[in-house]
Write a structure and sequence with these properties.
about 55% helix; about 260 residues
């Protein structure tokens, strides 16, 4: 975690504490409910919600800068700002209504160190830009913003292919329903391999066995498909392509 935060988490404003909520996405009682920030029932909502979803990457880089450059020092002097920042602006989620539970004192101390790192990084970058130190120029800021938006947009696109997003009620789902709401892409097509690295092509299997190492997912999937009966729910998790999943989601949304 220390190495990740030093090399990636702090420079890209994604320290490890922002991803702790991924655990909720894998909890049976939380998946697909309001306590799951990584879920939106887009398949059972009108198409405008897909438009709102794809607008998120336009604002996320700006919100990240505000979160760590503005709210961090404010949180040092105000518990209200501190709790707001943690509850509403400290999680890598797609459900913007998600409210993160407040941390324990031990967690808060760890989070504070990561926040300080991001704040100092942004402060240093801002000073270099204001002083016009080459190559830290306003043009670089625009380039960084556009690059971040492009990366986030790609991530948003592949995130749509990870699940079927059909839980419109927001109620708890059975484990089998959660499995059927997730998708596997066993085909080793170049686009899928490049856009879904580290085992993301086997997202349904990842939800079935979250602790299974990503490099073992392909072999595990092949073994399951060879041994499971023809009527096994697991077989229904396979999609022929990312495009097929996105098309099904789009049709389902337009039918609402």
């Amino acid at each position: 975690r220390f190495v990740w935060n030093l090399l990636c988490g702090i420079p890209f404003l994604t320290p490890t504490f922002t991803y702790h909520t991924h655990v909720d996405h894998h909890m049976r009682k939380h998946y697909g409910t309001e306590r799951d920030g990584e879920y939106l029932p887009l398949a059972v909502r009108p198409p405008r919600h897909l438009f709102y979803y794809f607008c998120q990457p336009l604002f996320m880089p700006i919100l990240a800068v505000v979160r760590f450059l503005v709210l961090v020092p404010l949180s040092w002097v105000s518990t209200r700002f501190r709790d707001f920042a943690h509850a509403h602006m400290s999680s890598m989620v797609i459900n913007l209504n998600y409210v993160r539970p407040l941390p324990t004192d031990k967690q808060r101390r760890t989070f504070r160190l990561q926040e300080v790192g991001c704040f100092l990084f942004l402060l240093g970058a801002a000073l270099l830009v204001l002083r016009g130190r080459d190559p830290f120029t306003p043009a670089l800021v625009v380039q960084a913003y556009l690059t971040a938006v492009g990366v986030l947009m790609l991530n948003h696109l592949r995130t749509l292919g990870a699940h079927r997003y059909i839980n419109g009620s927001g109620d708890e789902m059975t484990f089998v329903d959660q499995l059927l709401d997730s998708v596997n892409y066993p085909q080793a097509r170049p686009w899928l391999v490049l856009s879904m690295p580290v085992g993301l092509r086997y997202h349904a299997l990842h939800h079935l066995c979250p602790s299974l190492p990503y490099h073992a997912l392909g072999a595990a999937h092949r073994r399951l498909m060879a041994e499971l009966p023809a009527d096994s729910p697991y077989r229904q998790t396979v999609s022929p392509s990312l495009w097929a999943s996105l098309s099904a989601l789009w049709r389902s949304s337009w039918s609402v």
